């Protein structure tokens, strides 16, 4: 990967990592409801799951989806159902009857979610198809993507969780927290629109 392509890819990775999407919305809600320390398994689950998906895509998953487009469609349907259930969980978080059961996503839940995250899959497949040039240099190009996505992913997950914590400090009453959770659930559903319309 030459320098101009690497810089272009870095800008692409930064924009896609920090713009709202299912992971970022869920992390902001987790930060607001549970704090940073309790959200760490969620943060690391997103990071590990996304990076493993990148490596899988770099070494053949993109070709598998091209060969079997129905597989991608099945994963997309699963992701939409999963995100709708998560949106419901976020919208109902903070209610008195749910307070004992409320907790952030666990590491493995966040990691496995990356397999069905429509934004993440689209970003990774787009990256691998647009920013890799040849099979002979594929390992080096995937290594560059790995480094750039590792930095931008950990940066965005921490930033969005901290954003949730800052917002959470202004939500001092249960009613305001419930309102915030409902808004975040709505944003999570809105982040599905590109997947639903494509």
Summarize the structure.
With 198 residues, the chain is an all-alpha fold.
Question: Characteristics of this structure?
Answer:
198 residues; mainly alpha; 81% helix
Number of domains: 1
Helix content: over 70%
Radius of gyration: 17 Å
Largest sheet: none
Q: What is the string of helix and strand elements?
A: HHHHHHHHH
Question: What's the average pLDDT?
Answer: 81
What structural class do you assign from the helix and strand content? mainly alpha
Dominant shape: globular
Query: Number of helical runs?
Result: 9
Explain what the structure shows.
This protein has 198 residues and is an all-alpha fold. It has one domain. The protein has nine helices and no strands. The longest helix has 32 residues. The radius of gyration is 17 Å and the shape is globular. It starts with a helix and ends with a helix. About 3% of the residues have low confidence.
């Amino acid at each position: 990967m030459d320098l101009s392509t690497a810089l272009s890819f870095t800008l692409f990775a930064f924009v896609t990592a920090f713009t709202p999407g299912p992971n970022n919305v869920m992390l902001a809600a987790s930060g607001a409801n549970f704090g940073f320390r309790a959200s760490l398994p969620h943060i690391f689950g997103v990071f590990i799951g996304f990076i493993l998906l990148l490596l899988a895509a770099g070494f053949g998953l993109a070709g598998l989806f091209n060969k079997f487009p129905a597989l991608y469609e099945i994963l997309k349907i699963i992701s939409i159902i999963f995100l709708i259930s998560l949106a419901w969980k976020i919208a109902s978080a903070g209610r008195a009857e749910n307070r004992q059961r409320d907790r952030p996503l666990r590491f493995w839940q966040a990691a496995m979610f990356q397999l069905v995250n429509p934004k993440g899959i689209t970003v990774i497949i787009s990256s691998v198809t647009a920013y890799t040039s040849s099979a002979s240099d594929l390992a080096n190009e995937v290594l560059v993507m790995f480094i750039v996505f590792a930095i931008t992913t950990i940066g965005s997950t921490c930033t969005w969780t901290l954003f949730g914590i800052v917002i959470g400090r202004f939500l001092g009453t249960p009613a305001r927290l419930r309102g915030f959770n409902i808004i975040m659930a709505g944003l999570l559903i809105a982040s599905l629109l590109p997947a639903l319309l494509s």
